[in-house]
Model the fold of this input.
Amino acid sequence: MAISYAHKPIYPQRLFATPLELILEYLGAHTIILAGITTNACVLISAGDVFLRGYRMLVPSDCVAALSADIQRAALKFMAENFNAETAPAGKLDLGLLLCAKAA
Done:
């Protein structure tokens, strides 16, 4: 049985003060794929939230958007360097991470 969950929090973080963290824990999730708009704001804040909770993270560069290419590149670089996010385009991401154990 597939489980699907739609989530729209009040805060830009996707885990803080929401049931999503409990759902991910219950499911045994270890990798999060982030996609959305305002790479340098909501996506970046969510990436920090995900990183602090010890999840592996994929942020496909062609599945997020910012107001300019320069801002997009800077936000993706920040997430890669500071949150260990894999930020290649979706078709080039290492989806083998989905099968690996939770990040240390």
The beta strands are 31-33, 36-37, 56-58, 64-65. The mean pLDDT is 83. The helical segments are 20-27, 39-52, 69-83. The first strand starts at residue 31 and ends at 33.
